[in-house]
Amino acid sequence: MAVFLGIDIGTSGTKTIAMREDGTILASATAEYPLMSPRPGWSEQNPDDWWDATIETVKKVLKTGKIKPDEVAGIGLSGQMHGSVFLDKQQNVIRHAILWNDQRTADECAEIETRVGGRPKLIEMVANPALTGFTAPKILWLQKNEPKSYAKTTQILLPKDFVRLKLTGEFATDVSDASGTLLLDVRNRQWSKPLLEKLEIKSTLLPKVFESEDVTGTLTEAAAKLLGLKKGVPVVAGAGDQAAGAVGNGIVKRGIISATLGTSGVVFAHSDDVQIDPTGRVHTFCHAVRGKWHIMGCVLSAGGGLQWYRNQLAETEVAAAKKIKTDPYNIITEQAAEAPPGCEGLFFLPYLTGERTPHADPNARGCFIGLSLRHGRSAIIRSIMEGATYAMRDCLEVINEMRIPIREIRLSGGGARSDFWRQMQADVYGRRVSMINAEEGPAFGAALLAAAGTGRFKGVVEACSALIKVTSSTDPQAEAKRIYTKSYPMYGKLYRSLKNDFNDIAKIVAES
Predict the structure, then answer these.
(1) Known catalytic residue: 241?
(2) Catalytic residue among 177, 241, 394, 427, which?
(3) What is the CATH number of domain 3-249+438-471?
(4) In which band, very low, low, confident or very high, does the pLDDT at 353 lie, cut at 50, 70 and 90?
(5) d(CA 78, CA 10)
C-alpha cells in the first residue's frame, strides 16, 4: 500500500508524518530549531535549519521500520506563511529569513498603500491590506535597509518552498502560500504585475505558482541520498500551513468552518467564489482546493495567553503537575472550571502581541478589566480563556457578516484537546462544535495533497471525504450561552474604548 509523506516547516520545528493511502498515520517525527530576535520586534530563522530538520525527521520516520523507501509514492509540503528567504545566484541564503511574526515593516506597509493609492485600491488589487507579517513589506525593507543584500538577490522563496528547492532543485510555490505574500492577484491566481511594477519588484525574483496538488518536481538523486528515499519521488506544490491545516480538517466544502485554537487562533472558511471584506478585517486567500478560495481570521495570541500565564504566574501549578506527572494545563483548566461563566464581570483582552483580526492593530495590548476583591486565581485563568475565545468569535462574526454559511464548526489545536475549552467554545460561539478523527494538522493536509496530486484520489475533496470523519460533537449549554451572548458585546466595546490609549502607550515605550 502506498505511503505519502507530509512535511510541515513550522516556526518552532519541522514535523514529518508518514500516511498510508487509507489515512492511517504510520509514523511522526519532529525536530526543533531556534528562533532569533536580533532586535525588539524582529523575528528570524536560518533556512538551513529547516532543511536539516527535514532530513532528520524523514530519517526518523523511516527508522520506525514500518515504512520502506520504495513505498513512498509522494511528498507534500506545508509551512509557516509569509516568511522571506533571499537567495543569490548560487542558491545560497543571503541573510536569515524574516518571519511571519516580525514587526519591523510598519513603515513599508504604509508606503505600499501610499504607492497604490490607498488601502481600498490595494485590497482591490490583491484582496488584502498591507500587514507587517506579509512578504511584500519585508522585500521593501530589504531594499531600503540592506541594499547590498537586495542587489545580490536573484530569488525570493517562502519557507516551505526553500525546502522544495532542496528536494527537487525547482523554484515553485502554491497559490495559497503565495496569497500571503501580498503580491498575488488572488482573483486570478497569478502574480500581480501592476503591483509588482508599483513596488519596483522584478517578477523574475518570484517562483512559478501552482495549484496545491500539482506536482512541481521530483526528488533529486542528492536529496534522495540524504533522506534515505528513492530518486524521482513526486513532490506536490503543497500549501501554506493554514490552508494545509484546513485540508487536514476537511474544510474543503462550503459551510464547514474550522476554529483552530493553538498559540495563535485561526478561523477558516472555504469559499467557492472570491469574497472580500472591503475593510480588510479578514484575509481572502486562494485555497489549497483547485480553483477555490478561503476566508481566514487570525488571532495572534489565543492559547498564547494561557501559555503566558503558565510561564509567568503558574509556578505552583507547574510544580504540582510535575509531582503527579501530568500536564500543568490540566491543573490550570481544573482551576478555571471553578469560576462561573463570565467571571462575574472580569474580562481579559488577549492582545499580548498586538492583534490582526479584526483590528489589525500592532499596538493593542493585553488587559484585565473588571478586577475586584472577589476575583481569585480561578477567575483570572478562566477570563484568559474566555478572552481568547471571544477573539475567535470576532473572526466568526466577520465571516457571518460576509454571508458565508456556517453549518458546522470543526475544532482543532490545543484548545480542542481540553474538554473544558471545547465546551467553552460551544458556549461562546453559541453553536455546536465537532471533533474529527485527524489530529496531525498541516502535515496531514500536506500528505493528503500528495495523495491527491499523485493520483490516489481524483482531487483534494475526494481525499478528505474518504479519510476524514466527525467523531464527536459538543452542544452549547443554555445558561452559559446566555451569559456569553450578553457579555460578548462588552468585550468588543472595551477594545474600542482603549484603542487610542494603546497608541499613546506605544509612543511612550518608543520614546523611553
Answers:
(1) yes
(2) 241
(3) 3.30.420.40
(4) confident
(5) 8
